[in-house]
Structure formats: C-alpha cells, structure tokens
Amino acid sequence: MTDCIMHSAPEPVFAEPWHAQVFAVTVALNEAGRFAWPDWAVRFSDTLKRHGLNRDLDGGDDYFHAWLETLEDLLADQGEAAPEDVMRLQSAWENAYLTTPHGQPVRISRK
C-alpha cells in the first residue's frame, strides 16, 4: 500500500495582483539596466522611513504603496515618467475601471 501525501497549495507570495505586478515591473527595469539595485534599495528605504513605516511590514498595501511611490519617483528623476503624466494615466485607469460594466475588460479610451 502506498502512502498518499497531501500537499496543500502554497500561500500566495503577494496579497494582491497589483503587488506582484509592480514588483515584476521593478525587477524587469533593474534587469534591463535602467537602475542599479543598491540605488533602488536606498530609495525604497528612504520612502519607508519618510512614511514612518519602520515596523515589520507584512508585504501588504502600505509596503507596496511605498514600493510604487519609490518606482514613480525613480522614473520621474530619470525623466522617464513625469508626475503629471503618471497622474493623468492613473486618473484615466480609475475612470475606466469605475465605468466598465462588471465582467468586461477594462480599457482606457485613447483620445
């Protein structure tokens, strides 16, 4: 008789899909040579400190909002993504999300 070993599904590493996406974009930009990881680490640490996030973080929204802010600031400093362009795009996505019927793909209009 063979013992049957039951394996439970691993816990997800990221609590939300956008956490994984912003992490993946950051890693891809680093791997493409757009910035050095030590520079990223210093910037991210500064963002966490600025927000008073010095407690142990669990990888939740507060952590990834700080991560996203750091990425946006880095791209702005490099001249890759002006803050006003980021805000305009964020607003367009929010509007599209809020006005898209449930179950339909979310798309931003191109004006």
Explain what the structure shows:
Helix content is 57%, strand content 0%. It is mainly α and 111 residues long. Helix 1 runs parallel beside helix 3 and helix 2 packs across helix 3. It has a domain of 66 residues.
Number of strands: 0
Spatial separation of the terminal alpha carbons: 67 Å
| Gross morphology | globular
Taking all residues together, what is the mean pLDDT? 85
| Helical stretch tally | 4
Strand content: under 5%
Structural category is mainly alpha
Q: Please provide the ordered H/E string of secondary-structure elements.
A: HHHH
Largest sheet: none
Question: What percent of the residues sit in helical stretches (DSSP H or I)?
Answer: 55-70%
**Rg from alpha-carbon coordinates:** 18 Å
In the predicted model, the low-confidence regions spanning at least 5 consecutive residues are: none
SSE arrangement:
Layout: H1 17-31, H2 37-50, H3 61-77, H4 83-99
Helix pairs in contact: 1-3, 2-3
Write a brief caption for the model.
The chain is mostly helical.
Primary descriptors:
single chain, globular, 111 residues, mainly alpha
